[in-house]
Amino acid sequence: MSKQATIEIDGKKYEFPLITGTENEVAIDIATLRSATGGVITLDSGFKNTGSCESAITFLDGEKGILRYRGYSIEELAKKVDFLEVTYLLIFGELPTKAQNDKFHDDIKAQSTVDEDIKKILEAFPKTAHPMGIISSLTSALTAFNPSSVNVNSEEDMYKAIVKILGKMPVLVAWTMRKKQGLPLDYGDDSLGYVENILKMMFAKPNCKYVQNKILVDALDKLLILHADHEQNCSTSTVRIVGSAHAGLFASISAGISALWGPLHGGANQAVLEMLQAIEADGGDTKKYMSKAKDKNDPFRLMGFGHRVYKNFDPRAKIIKKAADEVLEALGIDDPILAIAKGLEKEALEDPYFVERKLYPNVDFYSGVIYRAMNIPQEMFTVMFAIGRLPGWIAQWREMRLRKEPIGRPRQLYIGETLRPYIDVDNR
Ligand code: CMC
């Protein structure tokens, strides 16, 4: 392939270099487009064709349904390592040795408390507040309690900020859920694994000993691994762009949490379950909802279906579907919601509307069924996604700062009024 791309504007040709990634993906480097052409820009609403950065963290091929973290396939990682090892891998680039992993965990545990005054902020939220809004606010508030800015030229400083957020966010999550349920707020138990501790912090009752259920620990571990990174999705791009203004790690993550909340992104897992429950309450009429999803005059979409990048099966959905079967069977749960989900999937995969548009179940389609079996309240589903995505956000923020990327600042094509004379208020 030629190493140049040529763009012709008004008969004049401009050459731009082609850059090839390690998986032979090709990009046109248009960094000089505007200066060379005297002001021409590219327009790509929703960034459907625009790369915002070079990154060595996650590779995904949406046509082939491939997802890899740092070169390791998601299928292998989900089977062979735990969430903390994946966290280390994503952030620092290599799977940890036993000693590195132990130290990493110890350092996180040392940071797994938050200032008691955070409870006052939590108290002030109304009972109706959605947990994602609370978590985003509390994560941002962490900046106030840890005001010293991170020197990104110091590996040690970066590391300290990273273990802080990994230690503190699960506490904020557990407290948010417990406050809504009227349970006392407490800290975890540092003799436990990272994921075990999350479960204990969320579910321990004040009057009885919390007993870990290995099925639930393994299921949550797997779900968190599958959510841990997904290259330049909406929330991750948000984290990178906020961080590119040199806002701190906690502020950048808080912005990412807000982006994730949206139902077209992480909020879809809650929306999927609400949709499945609505179908169940409506007598299980999946055909009716399929018609609604295809009707262009109806705003309803089949939640948990479709993906900007995957035009084939989302590899995460395949693993989660199998896990949903296994978890429900192991727990002895017969959930009609799972049957509705499977029926809907089958119909969609055979329906020309979905086939032509290459719409497949995504990561959010089956995850809610597992969270429900774990007794996690529906409003907390997207929060669980956020715990999973935290290592990805951190890794992407760190990479962006280490590569000294410039501030993110897209261009626009102005389509408003041209210069016009001012009209006095009496004459408007
Ligand atoms: N139900 C019905 N029609 C759909 C759906 C759906 N879930 N998704 C896409 N379409 C149609 C859409 O109407 C359009 O049709 P047409 O070409 O006739 O106008 C076509 O498929 C292409 O859709 P699009 O909206 O242009 O695609 P996009 O890449 O901009 O959006 C998406 C991707 C994920 C936002 C979208 O598929 C969607 O809204 N899905 C439901 C929400 C959801 O499950 N989100 C979770 C995504 S995975 C988790 C994450 O990483 O965020």
Note the topology.
Blueprint: E1 4-9, E2 12-20, E3 26-28, H1 33-37, E4 58-61, E5 66-69, E6 72-73, H2 74-80, H3 83-92, H4 98-109, H5 118-124, H6 131-145, H7 155-181, H8 194-203, H9 214-227, H10 234-244, H11 249-261, H12 268-281, H13 286-294, H14 315-331, H15 336-350, H16 352-356, H17 364-373, H18 381-402
Antiparallel strand pairs: 1-2, 2-3, 4-5, 5-6
Helix pairs in contact: 2-9, 3-18, 4-7, 6-7, 6-11, 7-8, 7-18, 9-14, 9-18, 10-11, 10-18, 11-18, 12-15, 12-17, 14-17
The structure holds carboxymethyl coenzyme *A.
Provide tags for this entry.
three-stranded antiparallel sheet, binds carboxymethyl coenzyme *A, 18 helices, 6 strands, 428 residues, single chain
Q: How are helices and strands ordered from N to C?
A: EEEHEEEHHHHHHHHHHHHHHHHH
Mean of residue pLDDT values: 95
DSSP E strands, number: 6
Largest sheet: 3 strands, antiparallel
Low-confidence stretches: none
Describe this structure in words.
- A three-stranded antiparallel sheet has the order 1-2-3. A three-stranded antiparallel sheet has the order 4-5-6.
- The termini are far apart.
- It is built from 18 helices and six strands.
- It is mainly α.
- Bound molecules: carboxymethyl coenzyme *A.
- The site of carboxymethyl coenzyme *A (CMC) has 21 residues, from loops.
Structure summary:
By secondary structure, the chain is mostly helical. The chain contains 18 helices and 6 strands.
